[in-house]
Amino acid sequence: MNTQLGFTIWFTGLPCSGKTTLSRRIFEYIKGLGRRVELLDGDVIRRHFSQELGFSERERKINIRRIGFVSHLLTRNGIVTVVAAIAPYREVREENRKLIGRYIEVFCNCPLEVAEKRDVKGMYKKARLGEIKNFTGVSDPYEPPEHPDILINTHIEDIDQSVSKIINYLKENNYL
Predict the structure, then answer these.
(1) Is the pTM here over 0.85, yes or no?
(2) Which tens digit of pLDDT belongs to each residue from 92-113?
(3) What's the rounded Cα separation, in Å, for the pair 39 and 36?
(4) Residue boundaries of the structural domains of the chain
(5) Which of the four, 25, 44, 55, 140, has the lowest number of CB atoms within 10 Å?
(6) According to the CATH classification, is domain 7-171 in 3.40.50.300?
(7) What is the rounded distance in angstroms from the CA atom of residue 176 to the CA atom of residue 169?
(8) By C-alpha distance, which of 140, 104, 121 is closest to 12?
(9) What letter does residue 173 receive in the DSSP assignment?
(10) Helix (H) and strand (E) counts for the chain?
């Protein structure tokens, strides 16, 4: 019988703010502890689970609610779920917090200009040229968390500092 309590750790922030990098490191760390863990990357989920959705506010909310529901199912079955998804709207993140219960929100705080400099795919440039519509941070809003469980300033902290901060929080709050 599985006695592991599941939880969801949700990384939110602007595109190129460090969500994917940090979530992968945390996923590998938790996996290395022998825990049952899944990584839900927003881009991968959209490609395989929400490919019919566009990027309107309504469609973004549907996508984030879907990820939240999958996270809820995994969490209630004792699986640690690591999510890296922009989740630009505060309202939907709070809905997911209530649904999931054991939910930790990690805000990857990064100024827009720094995120744009990190963008190796050129998405911000295309958004500024009008080639990508409804792009978070440019033509669509990002509502930062008012009270994240963990605040990571990815433009100031290095990756190891950020990972340590997250792991320490998980340990101090009896998730690990």
Answers:
(1) yes
(2) 999 999 999 999 999 999 999 9
(3) 11
(4) 7-171
(5) 44
(6) yes
(7) 9
(8) 104
(9) T
(10) 7, 5
